[in-house]
Amino acid sequence: MRWNKGLLLAFALAASVVAYSQSPVLVHRQKYAMGTVFEIASYGASSGALSSALDEALQEAVRLDQIMSDYRADSELSRLNRGAFSVAQAVSPDLYRVIEIALEYSKLSGGRFDITVGPLAAYWKSVMRGERARSAADESKLRGCVGYGHVILRPPDRVEFRCPSTRIDLGAIGKGFAVDRIVEVLRRRGVSNALVNAGGSTLYGMGHPPGEGAWRVVVKDMGDGKTQVLLSEDSLSTSKQSAPSMLGDRKSGHLVDPLTGEPVATSMTVAVLARTATDSDALSTALLLVGTQRATQLITDSSALGALWISSTGQLEVVSKTPVKWLADARAEETPLEQKAQR
Amino acid sequence: MRLTKLVPAVLSFLLVPPVWGRVFLRWSLEAVPAAERLGVRDLVISWDPAKLDLFRNAARQGYRVYAQTDPGQVAAVARSAAKARITGVLINPGDSSRTSIAGGMRRLRATYPALDFLVLNPGAVQPKMRGTMVLNRNGVLQATSPTAQPWIDTNLALVRLDQALFPGQLPVYSFSWDLSGAAKEAGPDLADYALATAEAGAFGSAVLLSLHEPLARGLADNEASAWSLWREEREYLRFYSGRGRRPAEPAVAVIADDDPASFEPINLLVRHNVAVRVFSPPRVSGVELAKYPVVVALASPTPSQVRILADRARNGGTVVVLNLNKASYPWQSSPASQNNGTSVSFQPGTGKVIELLQPISDPESFAQDIRALIPDNKLGLSLWNALTVIGVMYNGQTENIVELLNYAADPLDVQVRVKGTYTSVKLETPEHGCCVLLKPSAEDGFTEFAVPSLYISGRLHLIRKARR
């Protein structure tokens, strides 16, 4: 699996009552990393200082890509995947921590969220592309080494695999982890109002835009687009199975259920609100895989604040731990962003 | 090679028209730097009969000067051409369709053979990598695509459609700079200008480039900061000022008319580096389509085209037909199988026809489906780790060329596989000139190599082993 999940989010900025000592400037920066586009939109007093902070923060995504990419042969993760069978490998604190969090979610979701499912996802991808025929023998062999139980953490910094073809793929959590690190850099650089976006599927709202109490986010598949999620010091991630083939009847989809070994068949979109992007990213995949019946329990047991299920017809189901203050209706009239920035 | 094979090969080579890119610079200031210094040959000035000195002055500075005007004024401009010393007329069709003014253009060309008449396509986009945040009228930052991949704004689909719908004419397009926040005031940076220049050069098209007003004024006033930026842009202008080349034949033919619904599927195909040749329906022929293993008919086929498509499928080709109206076709009597309720496959011979029964609601998925239909041995060019990169292949007599564009404008290592066995692969870039020798490895009739740190654009020279 590569760094891809559904890109289904839309974002809104609007007006509120925050007083700025001077007209804030809007700076927007983007960077290609982890096979997607990381973006930051931020308001501040000086475009020069803000640009410099945003550039430094985006460089964090590039740094983590060099650690967590399963595509780059020279990444730390690729080296781990090549050498961790029965020999514990020392890894960096970042890689150790993200694997540790991922394994916690694997336990929490009863094995549905699993960072070892990558080889099966790659297999289905090549079947979908017509590059190989489906083979029960291949599937059985691949499934033998899929399972988070094959990954052993040896504190403080070593990781070992118990199965020869176990491979870790951080595609379902890595972007969220990177967003959290980006937010840390921004905070260190004194940035307090920013929307950080990793490819549209995971984002984090810091502070709020001028004239607003929170960043407004619209999930693209959500009905008429009037319902908005309010983000302020929290994160929203969205997951959806990739679209089926229009011209063939092959099984398809980048999200594979590790328990069945096959692409999960669902047309639902799941959006998860959580305090950190790592949590929202991992949970959005986990919730899609566990299904709606077990989802409420998973939300209760996890750090999620709430979740949205959106059907293919745009119908909405909301689960929230707290009173649902994080959803709002879009205003009938909004003023252009540029004007807001000058208020 | 036997003569019977050589002659059609040579003929095919000669019949594909060569293409080359050009940059037209929009200018409105009275002072204009010399053409040689600016590195641009073609200057476009909005037509104003009261300001003929502006045109004459630009001509004196060494430019081929084009007057931009609307269809209603073309004849008047043409009559004043000699007085204004203009080379040609660039017609902005405005609300008129370009097809409707084509007849008028033919008459003007006949009347004024010394004048170059070009029709602008004003519907292009600023080439760039774009995330999902966009600022719209309501201040909404909005997702622009349901795809998991980075969104690339490229003009390749527009160029391919223009080449098909207006054959023999240089596709000339223009766009508005898409800048927001602080960048709006600062204007486009070097990467923006360079990528636009590289796109036109790589695609064999022409771009009408608008300079940010302070930059144009700075160049006119000889300001050091303006010329510092422009000196770097000149490297891109120089790099793409070469001679015309013949595009390599792709694996996919697309039959499309000017229906806007055809654009996005073609756009997604080229974004996925599925090279296509677009045919307008009147130009579809059995001889032409026989070259392509995959044929996609986005326009409704006429009875004669249905026969051509059926023939292509009988003889091993894969034909995808959009059949939203449940039309009857001859292949429907052959063995059929349903696919997910969205399409039906027929096997009328050694090939197949896939009828798509629903509109292409997800062009991303559609493009991936088409990519999967291409036989592996027919893929001329494949790129990996290159979601922001587009490659275009050209055939030459001594070497083949691949033009690469990186819309991320950020150094990227790209893995390349090209069909054919090449003993030498060289990389030439606007920034570093010619050439870095790459390390090719050959396997199963393909050559693979890595392009290191592709910044904005580069040109690969693929050289076969010399024949004795």
Quick synopsis:
Chain A has 343 residues and is an alpha+beta fold.
| Computed CA radius of gyration of chain B, to the nearest angstrom | 23 Å
Return Rg of chain A in Å: 20 Å
Biggest interface pair, counts:
A-B, 56 and 54 residues
Contiguous helical run count of chain B: 15
CATH superfamily of the largest domain in chain B: Aldolase class I
Report the strand count of chain B.
Answer: 27
Helix residue percentage of chain A: 25-40%
Cα-to-Cα separation, first versus last residue of chain A: 45 Å
Task: State the share of residues found in helices of chain B, binned by percent.
Answer: 25-40%
Report strand order across the widest sheet of chain A: 2-3-7-8-11-14-15-16
SSE string of chain A: EEEHHEHHHEEHEEEEEEEEHEEEH
Distance between the termini of chain B: 13 Å
Describe the structure.
The complex is a heterodimer of chains A (343) and B (468). With 343 residues, chain A is an alpha+beta fold. In chain A, 32% of the residues lie in helices and 24% in strands. Chain A has helices spanning 47-68, 76-83, 93-108, 118-128, 136-144, 174-188, 277-301, 337-341; strands at 9-12, 25-33, 36-44, 89-90, 151-154, 158-161, 194-198, 202-206, 215-219, 227-231, 234-240, 256-257, 262-263, 269-274, 304-310, 316-320, 327-329. Chain A is globular and about 65 Å long. The termini of chain A are far apart. With 468 residues, chain B is of the alpha/beta class. The radius of gyration of chain B is 23 Å and the shape is globular. Chain B has 15 helices and 27 strands. Chain B has 3 domains: 16-126 and 161-239, Aldolase class I (TIM Barrel, Alpha-Beta Barrel), CATH 3.20.20.70; 252-376, 3-Layer(aba) Sandwich (Rossmann fold), CATH 3.40.50; 381-463, Golgi alpha-mannosidase II (Immunoglobulin-like), CATH 2.60.40.1180. Mean pLDDT of chain B is 89; it is low at 1-16, 136-140 and 142-147. Chains A and B meet through strand 1, strand 2, strand 3, helix 1 and helix 8 of A and strand 7, helix 8, strand 16 and helix 15 of B.
